[in-house]
Amino acid sequence: MLSISSAVGAENDLRELEFFTEAYPPANFIKDDHITGYSVDILLAASALVGEPITLSQISLQPWARSYRRVLTRQNTVLFSTTRSEHREALFYWVGPIVDIKVVVLARRGDNIKIDKPLDMAKYRIGAIRDDIGEQSLLELGVPRAAMQEAIDVTVLAEQLLKKRIDLLVYAERAAYWWARQVGIDADLFEPVYVVKKGDVYFAVNRDSDPAVVEKLQKGLDLLKQTDQSGSSRYQEILDKY
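User: That's the sequence. What structure does it adopt?
Assistant: Structure tokens below.
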């Protein structure tokens, strides 16, 4: 079992960590030149509850593939919001869950695309974000990489789907619709035709980091989720804002 008391020093302090995320609303995104979202608010509140409040200056928002590789290879770094999967399980320490997630394959409404099994997708052009859980899940299901068209921005894929440059788009459902609306695309033009994965998203901590920081952050999150006599919690209050 991890133990906070097993190590000492600045590297055990949450305020010494670097956090990396992507534009993945409403979990994490830029608004008025500041990083915000429910995952960001949860992170800040959880760290404060254990006496080591994280600041926005510790958080960098950049394309997912860059953040993913950075945290895989650099000590004292944390990636969020990250879907926990069998493929990723041994790559990180995990703190969470933050919230649940549903990854789906979207098609243009009216195209009447029917997907009964994963390999049915192999005959279509599938838009995916490089190293995103959607792409990784399709590969695990046996869908060939040659069927996928990668991008680093889901708005690009939404526009390509609308313009019929791709046939399908794999991404988290809520976030895909949110992004489509941001670039003026009516989300009702798309429909889910296959559920790739249901799961939860977490804070993923580099494996070379001190396990003590993992336990601290988990403790803060658990405290945040504690309910009062009325059944409410600070955690739920944060989610309700978004």
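The helical segments are 38-49, 64-73, 133-140, 154-162, 173-182, 211-225, 234-241.
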